Amino acid sequence: MAPSINAGFAGFTANMAAELSASLPGRVFSSGTDEYEISRKVWNGTIDQYPALVVHATESADIVVAVKFASKHGLGIAIKATGHGALKAADADAILIDTSRMKHISVDPASRTATLGPGVTAVEFLDAIQKYQLIGPTPVSQEVGMTGYTLAGGYGDLPRVTALSSDNLVSADIVLTDGRQLTASETENRDLFWALRGGGGNFRDRYIHDAQAAQGAGKALGRGVEL
Ligand SMILES: Cc1cc2nc3c(=O)[nH]c(=O)nc-3n(C[C@H](O)[C@H](O)[C@H](O)COP(=O)(O)OP(=O)(O)OC[C@H]3O[C@@H](n4cnc5c(N)ncnc54)[C@H](O)[C@@H]3O)c2cc1C
User: Fold this and answer.
1) CA–centroid distance, residue 197 to ligand 1 (Å)
2) Could you tell me if residue 8 is inside a domain?
3) Half-sphere exposure of 153 (CA within 13 A, CB side)
């Protein structure tokens, strides 16, 4: 079935949608589908957005493909994990990458660090670390996404214990707009690492924070509370 095209973006063609769908079968959704409708909705009900396409990313490689496609065709990129932080509508010429399915979590109790996929919410993060009697820098609302929250700074409900979530970020995997992947940390790409800690993420035309990316939430996980 030919994809239905977002009427808000005259430059977008069915061929472009078909090209991306061929690279990401089953993960690309156009206006008129239930998947598109669900992904375009955000927490702030006044934002009524109609991106050109929605991509349901399931792994880093999906993000790389979507970003390269957007660059090739001069499209924008918008990112949604939970939708709690959307401040404006995604442009009609943007690909909306929905990372909510990327829920990988691993916890290393010895170093008191966790690696999070970009779709992990606060409650999922807490569930994972509490098994080790650890706490972390989590927001008041447990439905908020850990990646967006950390990129925005992240002032949690135990700030005197955990500090800001961004203070705890150890490293992040990044996808550049040309599809290259790199790591940002205190020792690698330090300028990006600085920008990640409070810059809000998805710096337009610069890079996006990747998937298995958001390798976040670090040492203060570490202050294990004795329960
Ligand atoms: C009900 C509610 C309670 C809140 N409570 C707190 C709180 O206690 N403390 C606090 O500090 N903040 C709080 N916030 C603010 C919240 O931390 C921010 O709105 C944050 O941006 C939400 O991130 P998200 O991933 O859930 O939302 P999303 O809307 O999915 O993402 C928000 C933005 O983060 C960026 N982003 C997300 N994922 C990626 C990625 N993988 N790569 C690049 N960029 C990305 C994008 O710019 C995106 O637009 C709250 C917000 C709400 C609505």
Assistant:
1) 13
2) no
3) 2
Q: What is the CATH number of the domain that holds 168?
A: 3.30.465.10
Instruction: Enter the pTM of the model.
Output: 0.90
Contact indicator for 133, 225 with CB cutoff of 8 Å:
yes
Q: Which residues pair with 113 in a beta bridge?
A: 108
Tell me, yes or no, whether 4 lies in a domain: no
The rounded distance, in Å, linking the Cα atoms of 155 and 122 is 13
Query: Alpha-carbon distance 66 to 68, whole Å?
Result: 6
Q: Is 194 in the pocket of ligand 1 (CB under 6 A)?
A: no
Q: Considering 50, 73, 98, which residue would you say is the last residue of a domain? A: 98
Mean pLDDT score across all residues of the chain: 82
Note whether residue 3 is domain-resident.
no
Closest CA to 128 of 108, 144, 147: 108
**18 and 49 part of one domain:** yes
* Residue with the larger pLDDT of the pair 203 and 119: 119
- 161-208 pLDDT, tens digit per residue, is 888 888 888 888 888 888 888 888 889 989 888 888 888 766 544 433
Q: What's the pLDDT at 25?
A: 95
Q: What whole-number distance in Å separates Cα of residue 214 and Cα of residue 171?
A: 7
Give the atom of ligand 1 at the shortest distance from the alpha carbon of 82: 30
Q: Report whether 121 contacts 145 (CB < 8 A).
A: yes
84 in ligand 1 pocket by Cβ < 6 Å? yes
- Verify that 201 and 109 share a domain, yes or no: yes
Instruction: Specify if 131 maps to a domain.
Output: yes
Q: Is the pLDDT of residue 62 over 50?
A: yes
